[in-house]
Amino acid sequence: MDAKQLTNQYIEIVKSDEDRFYQDYLKAVEAVANSSAIYKGKPVPFLYQPMFFTAQDIETFKYIGKTLMSITNKVVNKYKESPKFRKKFGYSKLLEELILVDHGYDINVPIGRFDIFYGGGDKFKFCELNTDGSSAMNEDNTIGRILLETESMKIMKEKYEISYFELIYKWVDESINIFKKFNPDIEKPNVAIVDFEESGTPTEFKEFKKAYIDKGYNAVIADPRELKYIDGSLYYNEMKVDLIYRRIVTRELIDRSEEIKDLIDAYRDKAVCVIGPIKSQIMHNKIIFKILHDEDVQEIFTEEEREYIRKHIPYTNEFSGNREVYDEVLNNKDKYIIKPLDLYASRGVYAGRDFTLEEWKGKLDECWENDYIYQEFCIPFTRDFIEFVDGKATISKFGHIVGIFMYNENFAGMYTRIGKNSIISGITNYYTAPNVLVE
Known about the structure:
Elements: H1 3-15, H2 18-33, E1 38-39, E2 42-43, E3 51-53, H3 55-81, H4 83-86, H5 93-100, E4 111-118, E5 124-130, H6 137-148, H7 151-157, E6 162-164, H8 168-182, E7 191-194, H9 202-214, E8 219-222, E9 227-230, E10 233-236, E11 239-241, E12 243-246, H10 250-255, H11 261-268, E13 273-275, H12 281-284, H13 287-291, H14 295-298, H15 303-312, E14 316-318, H16 323-331, E15 336-340, E16 350-351, H17 357-367, E17 372-376, E18 382-389, E19 392-407, E20 410-419, E21 431-432, E22 435-438
Parallel strand pairs: 3-22, 7-8, 7-12, 12-13
Antiparallel strand pairs: 1-2, 4-5, 4-19, 6-22, 9-10, 10-11, 14-17, 15-16, 15-17, 18-19, 19-20, 20-21
Helix pairs in contact: 1-7, 8-9, 16-17
């Protein structure tokens, strides 16, 4: 039994009675529209089919995450120890200073979503490393619960044990475990989920807030501008904040540092536990894809880790400097994708194969010497999915990106988005495909 066989079995079930399952799909659409799976004010798009994974896939994801965490910790230690190494990142004085602050516990990247193109087993390539601000747990879980109750999945459950990966309450438990390392004397820390109001994902934040409260903690959703540092403690209104679940992406935190001095001062003074720490930016910035391949960096890894990097981290370099770089990317457009160093949600990402040569040149002129990297283009692996077109079930091949969630350096679950374009993201035509384990 593998994912392809499970997918084929599921498709046969749906095709056996298209009218019945189309009506059931419409019920699922209504359920999602009335749920918390809302992004930018609209229901998250999905199809009438989850991503099926086996126990063997999960063991692979655990290996992928564990190895990446080992590499991460070695890179962070090198950053702390070596001023020369720090120069590779080109960070601002403030960002470098905050990265070097002792954050009060021994986990460098407490939460991350590491996006891969996954074809099973050892066939995978990294697409993006998301640390601070990692999101979409609620999307996966909410749509997953709805799909597990559909008529088609009930038939699948007659033959298999099928479950999803709960990601909200699990994070609450892991964040509290991390907090205990920061301050074991506070049994019930007060929690603030923090992001700029105009940048956050409020429906997801509400789900996390509810989970913290259900577990017995005071919890609020706070804009960082509302936090006040008074007499050695950080406050949100009258509530002393002990634990911050940081959803502010580091770039925005640095760019808007003048607006949030109280939070930054409290972080410097270790007056509040911030999960995750600013150190997570070391792996979040896309320049890490280049740095991992640098010869002088390779020496800090084991041979297994070096092989992992060679096989699974796509070739990456800065899109600047020697004009030969520009010509290489221009003249081999189908081989490359260009990305801004530190934006998210695929903003400013362009794949050469999506443009004519003239259009591609225009994009390159726009991005040259402008904090961009170029990277080998990875063709996404595909999987068959059911689409209902005018009430009829059609089968289409979709590329997919699997995001592996790591909580407290342990595998927690996945977030998968699928699409037919070269770039699969929340700003192109995409669907969320909730992930289920089949045993």
